[in-house]
Amino acid sequence: MSKRRPFVAGNWKMNTDRASALRLALDVADGLGDAGAQVDTAVCPPFVYLDAVGRALAAAQTHLSLGAQDVYCERDGAFTGEVSIAMLKDLACAYVLTGHSERRHVIGESDHLIARKTSSVLEAGLSCILCVGETIEQRQAGQTDAVNQRQVSSGLEGLNPEWLGRLTIAYEPVWAIGTGVTATPADAQDAHLKIRAIVERLFGQKAAEAMRILYGGSVKPSNAVELFAQPDIDGGLIGGASLNASDFLAIIRAASS
Ligand code: PGA
Question: How far away, in angstroms, is 199 Cα from ligand 1 center?
């Protein structure tokens, strides 16, 4: 296990409804037990359920934090359909995902927009999980390292070093997301080590050693222990398995062991 405090976040994507979102959040909160004190944990429900889930978590007095799946970087104004950082703060959101592969590849967000979102979230005092990772075509073309290099350096460019304590990077190879295919622990470790080296080049050794780098892509209770045992894997960003409270809790416990 790494030297850093482990972190496991659940990305619910466009799933759940009001009732199932509340039930899932409370089931996770109830089941956290001792692991809740050893692992930082968060769930990222759809925007429209953030308020209800946030209130339920506050009433439950749990360690489980609230995160948003995305945000827009402008303060306010004519941005139809978007959600601002101030709105997320209003709902006691602690974390925001930026650059998730579905935002990059399905919605079409650019490195530039993702960098603006990342710096705006951090500047506003929230914590950010910046997601990076290569597609299958990029991997087959031997471009994995180059893609990670580009996405990490563009996402971190110009950040105030004082904000870095609130930044987490999630390495999520796109071909592993929602496919049931996971990167081998050795391949994931290799990518994480290289990402940490990019952070070191940009911000120095201390910042690189402190930076939490999560793995994401078909993490399940059956593979979490081995992935989290790698020295540069500091936890996970969990999609499908976070929709099932007992699977998500098993993954959290794997990070605490
Ligand atoms: P998955 O998704 O765990 O369903 O592969 C991970 C993610 O997209 O964050």
Answer: 23
